[in-house]
């Protein structure tokens, strides 16, 4: 397998922010399951970048490739812009790529050419413990100091840790009949095919 690339890395308009390590007492695939599940945003991250009054998710086609899988989904997102006193609710579409079962990235580019992209890696410690690391690139939130930006990511991931570590079994079953799946789980159900 080739070393995964991060297409936005060379974009000179973006600043690069390293986040992590984040320790999870759960299996690596449970962490990836969380990263690619858009349905939890409105509830787990309510008030940070999502709103439970707008839980809608629009799913787009999933494509399997020799190098992994890609898919798009659209969700409502709370966006605060510089110079605007109130936050806005915008429907945004995000493109995800999983190029390895534990490595991937997403890219969200809005109509105004604002970009946020995140390249993540999950490092297994054992079957029920792992570490998440990621590089976040963005070109429109430069007014937020890097330390505050990382603190916000820490808050988001700590919310995810609480949810992921509460799931049982800790290891993601590869038998799809072992758990109940909803339409929003369509990407997770294809994780074994990426392995």
Write the layout of secondary structure elements.
Elements: E1 15-24, H1 28-35, H2 41-44, E2 57-59, E3 63-65, E4 68-79, E5 88-100, E6 103-109, E7 115-126, E8 129-138, H3 146-166, H4 191-194
In short:
The chain is an alpha+beta fold and 195 residues long. Helices cover 19% and strands 36% of the residues.
Tags for this model:
alpha+beta, 195 residues, eight-stranded antiparallel sheet, globular, 4 helices
What does this structure look like?
This protein is α+β, with helices and mostly antiparallel strands. It has helices spanning 28-35, 41-44, 146-166, 191-194, and strands at 15-24, 57-59, 63-65, 68-79, 88-100, 103-109, 115-126, 129-138. Strands 1, 2, 3, 4, 5, 6, 7 and 8 form an eight-stranded antiparallel sheet that branches. A hairpin with a 2-residue loop joins strand 7 and strand 8. The model has no long low-confidence stretch (mean pLDDT 84).
Count of discrete alpha- or pi-helical segments spanning 4 or more residues: 4
SSE string, helix = H, strand = E? Answer: EHHEEEEEEEHH
Number of strands: 8
The amount of helix comes to: 10-25%
Task: Report the C-alpha radius of gyration, rounded.
Answer: 16 Å
Low-confidence stretches: none
Euclidean distance between termini CA atoms: 11 Å
Give the averaged pLDDT, no decimals: 84
Which of globular, elongated, flat, extended, rod-shaped describes the shape? Answer: globular
What's the story with the biggest beta sheet? 8 strands, antiparallel
Structural class: alpha+beta
Strand coverage percent? 35-45%
């Amino acid at each position: 397998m080739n070393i995964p690339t991060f297409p936005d890395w060379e974009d000179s308009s973006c600043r690069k922010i390293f986040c992590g390590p984040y320790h999870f007492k759960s299996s690596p695939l449970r962490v990836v399951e969380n990263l690619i599940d858009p349905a939890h945003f409105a509830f787990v991250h309510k008030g940070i970048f999502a709103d439970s009054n707008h839980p809608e998710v629009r799913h787009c086609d999933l494509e399997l490739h020799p190098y992994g899988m890609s898919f798009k989904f659209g969700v409502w997102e709370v966006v605060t812009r510089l110079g605007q006193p109130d936050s806005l609710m915008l429907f945004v579409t995000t493109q995800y790529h999983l190029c390895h079962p534990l490595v991937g990235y997403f890219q969200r580019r809005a109509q105004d050419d604002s970009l946020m992209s995140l390249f993540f890696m999950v490092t297994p410690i054992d079957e029920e413990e792992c570490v998440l690391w990621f590089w976040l690139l963005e070109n429109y939130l430069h007014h937020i100091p890097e330390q505050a930006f990382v603190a916000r990511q820490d808050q988001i991931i700590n919310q995810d840790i609480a949810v992921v570590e509460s799931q049982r079994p800790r290891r993601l079953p590869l038998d799809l009949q072992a758990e109940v799946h909803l339409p929003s789980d369509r990407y997770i159900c294809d994780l074994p095919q990426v392995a």
